[in-house]
Amino acid sequence: VRRGGRSEAGDQPPRYLAPSTHEPIYKATDNVTNSQKKKKSITFLDQSLAATLIARSVRLHPSPQPISKAGHTTMTGATLRPDQADLPSAKSTASYWHREPSTTLLGHRTTKALPPTADVVVVGSGITGAFATKELLEQQAVKGKKKVLLLEAREVCWGATGRNGGHCQPVAYNPNTAIADFELRNYAHLAHFIAANAVPCDWVSLRGVHALLTPDLVAAAEKQIAALPPHLAGLARLVTDPEELKTLRVPNAAGAVVQERAASVWPYKLVAWIFEDLLRRFGPGSGAETQSENGWFNIQTNTPVTRLQHLPGSSGEASWVVHTDRGQVAAKKVLLASNAYTSRLLPSFADLIVPVRGQVATLLPEPRAELARSYVFMASSDASKGEPNQDDYLIQRPGPGLEMILGGGRARGTLRGVGVSDDDEVDPVVAAYLRRAGATNVDLGNEGEKEELTASYEWTGIMAFSRDGRPWVGPVPSGSVLGGGEGLWVCAGYTGHGMPQAALCGRAVAGMMVGSQGGGENTVDVPADFVVSEERAEKARALPSIKEMDDLDMFLL
Prior knowledge:
Blueprint: H1 34-39, H2 47-60, E1 117-123, H3 127-143, E2 148-151, E3 167-168, H4 177-197, E4 204-212, H5 215-226, H6 230-233, E5 236-239, H7 242-247, E6 255-264, H8 267-282, E7 297-300, E8 305-310, E9 320-324, E10 327-336, H9 342-345, E11 353-364, E12 373-379, E13 390-396, E14 404-407, H10 428-440, E15 454-466, E16 472-475, E17 488-492, H11 502-514, H12 534-541, H13 546-551
Parallel strand pairs: 1-2, 1-10, 2-7, 4-12, 10-17
Antiparallel strand pairs: 3-6, 4-6, 5-6, 8-9, 9-10, 11-14, 11-15, 12-13, 13-14, 16-17
């Protein structure tokens, strides 16, 4: 939901990711003809064993009954701890990006019934889930096919990816060079993927302007840019000349950073195209059903996962039971691509990945001035004037509509949105701010400009703020620190900066899961700071809480 950039501090140690040592999941054969067995050994979990595991889990841990939270309708499955994320809202605000939903994916369930087993269960269908699932299916097509089940609480791409500001803006002047390099690789990967496949998602490459409205942010940016290594130095420059600031349409800024790499995009259409393509290639009717009755890929929408149950001591067979409101699924591996909602299923992450509500509006300036750049507007808070910080982000849709998509104003909302899991309402104070800011943040070149613009869409979405500012990517170890177990993986916590990071993070975690890390053309590295570990969690917990850091403007430059 947040704009496309924020900086990270700290040196980056060399990346190290141990290759996966997980064995193939399924041992017994089923649903395979004799002729197929002769051609290829197709293995998947014995159905009677799956039934036994699920029956045992239900006896020992019956699924909790749904409850209703006061003030709104949710799909919660149990009473939550005060700091734990809720499940996604049953009724969400209408995002501009959802106005043209995929007829294939809306309400899609590949099979009428929930499959009782899967090799891998992916929870979440945003950009992380899309690229992770794509990698899982494509790599396993070579390594030996496995059944992948994607579970989504609502519709496909109905969370943060389908509710963001339409930005993809890597931060080239991030003082952490490894992260800057990774974001630029992610940007290039997306641009190439979209062009090579002619994905109709309105990707527009352009320059990005970070308008710095307070002198302290100008000083911070100047220091960061001066320290850039040669290969990054030409990708970001600081502008303080008043005349050039006017040319950039930010005459009231104290300074601005102009970045060479930025883009606007229709994020829902990108994700929807990927899932439609995967269904064509790996789902029923793709030709894959000659080896698996219903193909290798199954999507089940409107199927919230209510909890996870680990079955220790079941080496070589299903080690997880995934509980949903429609039944249970036995699986060897589970990937949580659930971002802000991660702690709902993994309570140990409640203080490491915190839901934060953001708000966005589609604005209609008249006449429609055409903007050649995307924008971020940042200002530190001023306690003496009672002014909160500013962290707004703006793109313009291509013609003929030329609508402006503006997000931000979070500091003016209730609790600044921190700890809020619900996207079923808009904050009227933030909504009014965005309509005013749309008329004043950028110079539209119109005489007698309105003090407030008309909004055609206003919506909210839930970001996932990470306590140390980095996403969490990799296997979740068992124990009291993180509460995971063998076969559980996570890829979440982008702090509102997912579009420049999530695609390659999703590919990387999938590569870890199938054991491709450690070399080869399909290897995707992530910065070492992104990798999940108990040591990292303990260091993060030594920091102030996310709410405390947010109150101190620590998520700005």
